[in-house]
Amino acid sequence: MGRQVDNFLHAFSSNSKYFLSQPFLWKVSIAASNTLKTAVDTACDKAGEKWRALTLPEDYTSADGSILVAQEVSIPGEQTSFGEFGQENRGGFLPGYGVTQREGFLSRGLTINFFETKTDIEHTFFRPWLIAIAIDGLINDKLKADNIMVEQYDNRMRRRKGFIFDDVFPTFCEPYTLNYSDAPFTVKTVTFGCKNYRPLEV
Fold first, then answer.
1. Fold (CATH) for 26-86+95-199
2. What's the pTM value of the predicted model, to 2 decimals?
3. What is the DSSP-derived secondary structure letter of residue 149?
């Protein structure tokens, strides 16, 4: 038994597949094109709010090393609903049960806490995008981004883990308070709906 414990502890400290995740930032990549920006501009223009949409995600990345990063990413959960089935007056017998439905994609949202930078991505990209969806609806397929990719790296710049989310659109921009406090960074929280997601190969 002692030998097994020693072997496990040795693997835990030397084998990379057992290494614990470190609190590094998440790099966020959004596959959005000028087609999406045009669709957002057009929809917001109907409500007299075309001024809102000023940027695309690519404007937050540059050759000087600027990247779009998040403090926290909440991966969607998975839930299946069950119901009881059977006849009345079954005496002491338990009813049968079966699956009624799988949890809908809107209940399995992707939530990202973006760090605020000089360029306000939440007000100049995500809110206009959400307003455009409210005006045009998801019938306008151009209002969905192809995907959002989130990646976490170790201190040697090797990707530790990552996920890609397909057919993404925002569903909620969380309100926030700006005040004078000891909080070092402002974080903007945005929730997205997606068709499906999958882990990236490491």
1. Pnp Oxidase; Chain A (2.30.110)
2. 0.74
3. E
